[in-house]
Amino acid sequence: MLRIPCPHCGERDETEFHYGGEAGVDYPAEPAALDDVAWAEYLFVRADPADWFTERWCHVSACRQWFTIDRHTVSDEVRA
């Protein structure tokens, strides 16, 4: 099981968290100017590297705070 270090509560099991996706994805500057294809790309296309990946997580079972971590997608090693 993946152990995630919450900056507020300490390290906990992944079952206490909600995955928020890739971190650093900016909202479109002019959303009204996007067509359906551009919206679909914004909503659904994300990087999927076999390397370190920056992610957003929410500790839903305790402090309910959102935070960012780096996780290696192959080994599941986590660094806060």
Structural class: mainly beta
Approximately how much helix is present in the residues? 10-25%
N- and C-termini, Cα separation = 17 Å
Would you identify the CATH H-level superfamily? Folate-binding superfamily
Please state the CA-atom Rg, rounded to the nearest Å. 15 Å
Report the portion of residues in β strands.
35-45%
**CATH class, please?**
Alpha Beta
How many domains in all?
Answer: 1
Largest sheet, in brief, is:
4 strands, antiparallel
Which residue ranges are poorly predicted, with pLDDT under 50 across at least 5 consecutive positions?
none
Number of helices: 1
Number of strands: 6
Task: Give keywords.
mainly beta, 80 residues, two-stranded antiparallel sheet, 36% strand, Folate-binding fold
Structure, explained:
By secondary structure, this protein is mainly beta. It has one domain: 2-Layer Sandwich (Folate-binding fold), CATH 3.30.2270. Helices cover 11% and strands 36% of the residues. It has 1 helix and 6 strands. The chain has one helix at residues 36-44; strands spanning 3-6, 10-13, 18-22, 52-58, 66-72, 78-79. The strands form 2 sheets. A 4-stranded antiparallel beta sheet has the order 3-4-5-6, with no helix packed on it. The radius of gyration is 15 Å and the shape is globular.
Helix and strand layout, with pairings?
Layout lengths: L2 E4 L3 E4 L4 E5 L13 H9 L7 E7 L7 E7 L5 E2 L1
Antiparallel strand pairs: 1-2, 3-4, 4-5, 5-6
